[in-house]
Design brief:
The complex is a heterodimer of chains A (about 50) and B (about 240). Chain A has one helix and no strands. Chain A has about 50 residues and is mostly helical. The longest helix of chain A is centred in the middle third of the chain and has 43 residues. Chain A starts with 8 loop residues before the first helix and ends with a helix. Chain B has one domain. In chain B, helix 3 packs parallel to helix 7, helix 4 packs antiparallel against helix 7 and helix 5 runs antiparallel to helix 6. The radius of gyration of chain B is 20 Å and the shape is globular. The relative contact order of chain B is 0.17. The mean pLDDT of chain B is about 90. The chains are: A mainly alpha (about 50), B mainly alpha (about 240). Chains A and B meet through helix 1 of A and helix 2, helix 3, helix 4 and helix 7 of B.
Chain lengths: ~50, ~240
C-alpha cells in the first residue's frame, strides 16, 4: 500500500510523522481547552442563576 | 460593511461560528485527507529529488499558513487598535499558536527535506533565517499575551509587536527575491509556467493548501470562541469578588 520511497523513505516518513503529530496535538489541545472553558463558564452561569 | 462589524459582538460571533463550525470541520478533514492521500500515494517521484518531493504537500502549505496567519493577526490587531473591537484582538491571540505550529512544521519539514537535498539540516540562508525569526516572534507574541494581566493593555502591546513582526513575515516570503543568494529556491507556486511546479504535483498541492487554509480558519474560529468565553469567565469572577 505504501509507495516505494527508496533511499529517502526515512526522510519522507519522518516529515509526515512529525507534521501529523503536531497537527493532531494542535487540534486536540484546542478542542480540550475549548470544552474545559465552556464547562467552566456553564458552571459559573448556573451558580449565578441559582444565587440570583 | 455594517454586516461585518456585527460579528464584533461576542455573542453574535459565538452564535454564528457555532452554526458553521461543524460543516467547516468536515470540509477541512475532507480537503486535508484528499490532498495528503493524493500527494503521498498517487504522485510520482521527481526526477531530481526522488520521493522527497512528497514533503512539498506539508512544507509549502505550512509555510504559506505560517506567513498568512501572521498577516491575519496584523489585520485583526489593526482593527483592535483603530476600532477597539475585543473579538478582533482575541482572534489575533487565538491565531498565534496555530501560526506557531505551522512555522514549526515548515521549519522541521524543511530541515528534513534539506538534509538529503542540500546535504545540511540548516543554513543561515535569508529565507530560513527570516522564517526562524518569525517563529521567535510568534513565541514572543504568545508570551506577551500571557504575561500581561490587563487584557486591553495586552491587546495594545501585542498589536504593536505584531506590526514589528510583520517585517519578518514579509521577508520570509520575499527574502529569496530580495537577496539572490542562499540555498532555498524561489516560489513553488507561480504564475510563471517555467518556475511553477509540474501539474502532477501542482494540483494535489492546491488541495493540500486548501486543507491547511480551512484548518487554520476552523481552528481560529474555535479558539476565538474559547478566548471569548475565557474573557467572560474572568469578568464574571471579578464581578463576584466585587459583590
Amino acid at each position: 500500500m505504501i509507495p516505494d520511497l527508496g533511499k529517502y523513505a526515512g526522510a519522507v516518513m519522518g516529515a509526515y510523522a512529525v507534521s501529523i503529530v503536531l497537527l493532531v496535538l494542535l487540534v486536540a489541545v484546542s478542542m480540550w481547552r475549548g470544552a474545559r472553558v465552556r464547562r467552566q463558564l456553564d458552571e459559573i452561569e448556573a451558580r449565578r442563576a441559582r444565587n440570583g | 460593511m455594517a454586516s461585518l462589524w456585527q460579528y464584533a459582538n461576542p455573542q453574535k460571533f459565538v452564535q454564528t461560528t457555532g452554526a458553521v463550525l461543524p460543516a467547516l470541520a468536515v470540509l477541512t478533514a475532507l480537503a486535508l485527507i484528499a490532498g495528503l492521500v493524493w500527494g503521498f500515494f498517487f504522485t510520482p517521484d521527481d526526477f531530481r529529488q526522488g520521493s522527497t518531493v512528497k514533503i512539498i504537500y506539508l512544507h509549502v502549505p505550512a509555510a504559506l499558513m505560517a506567513i498568512n496567519a501572521w498577516l491575519m493577526m496584523l489585520v485583526a490587531s489593526l482593527i483592535w487598535l483603530v476600532r477597539r473591537h475585543h473579538v478582533s484582538a482575541l482572534a489575533a491571540r487565538a491565531a498565534a499558536p496555530v501560526g506557531l505550529t505551522m512555522t514549526v512544521i515548515a521549519l522541521l519539514t524543511g530541515a528534513i527535506w534539506g538534509q538529503p537535498m542540500w546535504g545540511t539540516w540548516w543554513a543561515w540562508d535569508p529565507r530560513l533565517t527570516s522564517f526562524l525569526i518569525l517563529g521567535l516572534f510568534y513565541l514572543g507574541y504568545i508570551a506577551l499575551w500571557a504575561a500581561i494581566e490587563d487584557p486591553d493593555a495586552a491587546a495594545d502591546l501585542t498589536a504593536v509587536l505584531c506590526m514589528v513582526g510583520s517585517v519578518f513575515a514579509v521577508l520570509s516570503r520575499y527574502a529569496v527575491n530580495f537577496w539572490n543568494q542562499g540555498l532555498h529556491q524561489g516560489a513553488s507556486l507561480s504564475m510563471d509556467a517555467e518556475e511553477n511546479v509540474a501539474d502532477v504535483f501542482y494540483f494535489p498541492l492546491l488541495v493540500c493548501i486548501a486543507g491547511f487554509v480551512l484548518l487554520f480558519v476552523t481552528l481560529v474560529l474555535l479558539r476565538t470562541r474559547t478566548e471569548i468565553r475565557a474573557r467572560r469567565i474572568k469578568a464574571l469572577l471579578a464581578r463576584e469578588r466585587m459583590a
